[in-house]
Amino acid sequence: MNTKINFAGIEMKNPVTVASGTFGYGREYSEFYDLGKLGAVITKGTSLKPRPGNKPTRVYETTGGMINSIGLQNPGVEYFASYDLPFLRKFDTKVIVNACGSSVEEYVELCKILNTLDIDGVELNLSCPNVKAGCLAFGTTYDGVKGITSAVRKVLDKPLIVKLTPNVTDITQTAKGAENAGADAVSLINTLLAMKIDINTKKPVLANNTGGLSGPAIKPVAVRMVYQVSKAVKIPIMGLGGIVNGEDAIEFMLAGASTVSIGCGNFINPYTAVETINGIEAYMKKHNIEDIKDIIGKVEMN
Amino acid sequence: MPKQVYTKLVKKEKLLDDLYKFSVEAKEIVDIAKPGNFLEIRINENLDPFLRRPISIYNLNKEKGILEFIFQVKGKGTQLLSKKEEGDFIDIIGPLGSGTFKLEEYKNIAILGGGIGIFPLYELAKEAKQDGINVNMYIEFRNKNLVVLEKEFEEKSSKLTITTDDGSYKNSGFAIQYLERDLNENKLDAIYACGPLPMLRAAKKLAEERNIPCQLSLEEKMGCGLGVCLGCAVKTANSPVDNPQYIHVCKAGPVFDSKLVEI
């Protein structure tokens, strides 16, 4: 049985990765299992300079998921390079850095630095709903995504994945923007902009009022968007949004994703990513599928 | 290093209408847990409620490997948890948090608790007393009907002061008033507190005015409980107003030196 896949030029031992912002820089979950089991680790969104993040309350549970407004708190790329990267490199897995910024110049500066590091790829975060400049300016239009992806592409030789927001009218447009600017792949979806109100205080529960919805509640939206994007672009797709087991992962792959990412599913069970890998293998065995590539995009539409 | 255990509920006790004490077999956790650590408990295998529930540790029975925790029914998650029966299995991750209560070389300490905040203080008092430390304990309840585990706390303290907000049992008023009164007469080496935010703020203020070390156990909404999602942020003391800095209750805490945080 072959579960290996070349995704955007990155040779992964299996298609299962962990999503940015739900896995830190790997340390915490390495206490539960060998990170070498994963196809890749995608780091916490990392910026040029440290970011303190938003005022609490930052997270809140909702039906079948959660909303968050962390605000991209991170220690900055310098700290990452000297402290977290050497740690992650101890494991036999690929390291993809989720890169975030608030101006084209900042993204370019950051990616120049990332290009010099011993990492396997960059995921461009153009879609965080909790940081104004990060999403509204770049992530929601064809021109916005194309512009910033082109600028980054010029300084980055490593595999480039562009992460797309679902908070748009037509996600195939932003996907095309990434493809036409030379991205190697797209990942989708980021969180859906959401709000929860405490009916007793009459205030939104998050200090930032709105936040990004993630978890199984958003999975059908994500699967639909992966399918649409797979029909619109030729570059491969990393699918994510509410995956908690192998069956969920298979659904994304049938819809057209080549790889998948486990997000807040990590929170409810630290072993979710590992169990997802096992679940994919069990499905392949049951359906006599020799090669993982034979699942990708094999949905049969009515 | 935290462990995940899937373990049996061996004893369930209803302390009040909405307050339960669970005892579970969890030697792996009990062996390494310290006073102040907490647990993340999965309510069920379904996806709703989605997140685990952070719950503090009440007692560590090191000889028998039994872990005890007490929780109040507040919402859907704790409601479902309270329906578990003896013999049922529970998925628990723990011990969590690197910031735990530290006894240092103190000889005479004050432990201050309010409401459900008293429970994580039990193991602290127990270990302090075992170490021969003089434990002055002050615990506060809203009223007589909510007073629980008086005998247990009495056993683990050198002197126990119970207060009720409405004066319906023992002393009337806030527990910290009694702590402050005693402090005027005797020197204390440290204050430990867990309870409602106004109580913690008062403890921090009092300790800093009198220049006494103070350790606070804090609460904030959590996503993962492991230090990954960075949800449970608390502002660090003296951080600039226009550029506030945060640390996280689940990883750096839940117990903090009062001088390190702004609450």
Write the layout of secondary structure elements.
The complex is a heterodimer of chains A (302) and B (263).
Chain A: E1 5-7, E2 10-12, E3 16-18, H1 27-30, E4 40-42, E5 59-62, E6 65-68, H2 77-88, E7 94-99, H3 104-116, E8 121-125, H4 132-136, H5 142-155, E9 160-163, H6 171-180, E10 185-188, E11 192-195, E12 197-198, E13 203-204, E14 210-214, H7 219-232, E15 237-240, H8 246-255, E16 259-262, H9 265-268, H10 272-286
Parallel strand pairs in A: 3-4, 3-16, 4-7, 7-8, 8-9, 9-10, 10-15, 15-16
Antiparallel strand pairs in A: 1-2, 5-6, 6-14, 11-14, 12-13
Chain B: E1 3-16, E2 19-25, H1 27-30, E3 38-42, E4 53-56, E5 59-61, E6 66-72, H2 76-81, E7 89-96, E8 108-114, H3 120-130, E9 134-141, H4 150-155, E10 159-164, E11 171-172, H5 175-185, E12 190-194, H6 197-210, E13 214-217, E14 233-235, E15 246-248, E16 255-257
Parallel strand pairs in B: 8-9, 8-12, 9-10, 10-11, 12-13
Antiparallel strand pairs in B: 1-2, 1-7, 2-6, 3-4, 3-7, 5-6, 13-16, 14-15
Your description of this structure?
The complex is a heterodimer of chains A (302) and B (263). Chain A has 302 residues and is α/β, with parallel strands linked by helices. Helix content of chain A is 33%, strand content 20%. In chain A, the strands form four sheets. Chain A has an eight-stranded parallel barrel with strand order 3-4-7-8-9-10-15-16, surrounded by five helices. In chain A, α6 (171-180) crosses α7 and α7 (219-232) packs parallel to α8. With 263 residues, chain B is α/β, with parallel strands linked by helices. Chain B has a seven-stranded antiparallel β-sheet with strand order 4-3-7-1-2-6-5. In chain B, strands 11-10-9-8-12-13-16 form a seven-stranded mixed β-sheet, with helices on both faces. In chain B, strands 14-15 form a two-stranded antiparallel sheet. In chain B, β12 (190-194), α6 and β13 (214-217) form a beta-alpha-beta unit. The longest helix of chain B is centred in the C-terminal third of the chain and has 14 residues, at 197-210. Chain B is globular. Classes of the chains: A alpha/beta (302), B alpha/beta (263). At the A-B interface, β5, β6 and α9 of A face loops of B.
